Automatic annotation (TrEMBL):
It comes from the Bacteria. It comes from Oliverpabstia intestinalis. Coiled coil: none annotated. CDD domains: LD-carboxypeptidase. GO terms for biological process: proteolysis. Residues 40-168 form the D-alanyl-D-alanine carboxypeptidase-like core domain. This is M15 family metallopeptidase. Residues 79-91 have a biased composition (Basic and acidic residues). Transmembrane segments: none annotated. GO terms for molecular function: peptidase activity. Pfam families: VanY. InterPro entries: DD-CPase-like (IPR052179), VanY-like_core_dom (IPR003709), VanY/YodJ_core_dom (IPR058193), Zn_M74/Hedgehog-like (IPR009045). Residues 79-98 are annotated as: Disordered.
Amino acid sequence: MDATILVNRTHRLPRKAIPQTLVEPEIIFDAPVGDRKRLLAVSAAKGVEALFARGKEEGIYLCGVSGYRSYERQEELYQKKRREQPKETGDPVHWIAPPGASEHQTGLALDVSCQAVDYQLDERFGETREGRWLKRCAPLYGFILRYPKGKEHITGYGWEPWHIRYVTRSLALYLTLTGLTLEEYYEQK
Ligand SMILES: [Zn+2]
C-alpha cells in the first residue's frame, strides 16, 4: 500500500488489502508480546523508532498501544459494538469505524500514549507534555496527527490526539505547513 493512501469512512479498503510486510518496531508497547497490534508496515516502523528515540533524548517517554489491525479484527470490534449498542446514535464522527474504514488496516497508523494518563487513549493525552511533544515532532519523522480538533466533519472521526499516521516526511511537513487534513489534500489534487 502506498504510504500516502487515503482511508476513511468513504474510502474503504477491501478485505484482501493486507500490508506486504509487517514488522515489530523496537519501541515500548503497552500490548502483550506476540500481539499483532505491535506490528507496523516497514516505513512506519522505521519512522516510529526514530521518533520515539528522539523523544527519549528529550526526556519524553512514549508508548505504542495499537498498530496494525486486520479487516477481520475490525469487523469483530464493529460487530461487538453493534451488539452492545444496536443503534448508532449521536454524532457519526464518534461511531466505531466499520471494517475497511480504519487506517490501522494499512499498518501505517499507531495509537500512542504515555504513563501520565495510564497508557489510555483519551483526550487527556493531548494535554500531556508527551502529547504536545508528539504533535510538534511527529511530522519530522513522517507522521501526522490524523484526526485534529475542529476537522471532525472532514475526517469523519473525532479528535484523537493519540493517533499518528505515517504519510512520508515530505507529505507530513506539507500537511503541517498548510494545516490540511489528508482528505483536504486529496480534494485539492
Ligand atoms: Zn488509531
